Amino acid sequence: MNDDRISVTKLSMDGLNWVTYHDHMIWTFSSQQWSDHLTSTTITQEYIVTGNINGQTLQSRWDAEEATAKQLIASSVPNHVFKWIKAQITATDI
Predict the structure, then answer these.
(1) Distance between CA 57 and CA 24 in Å, rounded?
(2) Model pTM score
(3) What are the per-10-residue average pLDDT scores of the chain (94 residues)?
(4) Which residues of 6-39 are buried (b: 16+ CB within 10 A; e: fewer)?
(5) If exposure means fewest CB atoms within 10 Å of the residue's CB, which of 18, 19, 29, 82 is most exposed?
């Protein structure tokens, strides 16, 4: 699907909606075919099998999707959570 207009549930300031937030994020990542970014810090076998797409190498596609996945998470959490996670390198780490 890969739509630029991805809508996600925001994590509340008190975190009381964590379960719903978590489930929405899993569904969102799945809808964009980014689930590997939740479980792996490097290119997975699925990326290798798929190969290059539209002139994008495996690494450039992984890096672009990783950056977007991290931004999606960052934009959906309150500032006090972002301050805690911003030093993480990968979406999996976040």
Answers:
(1) 29
(2) 0.84
(3) 70 95 94 92 90 91 94 95 95 94
(4) beeeebeeeeeeeeebeebbeebbeebebbbbbe
(5) 19
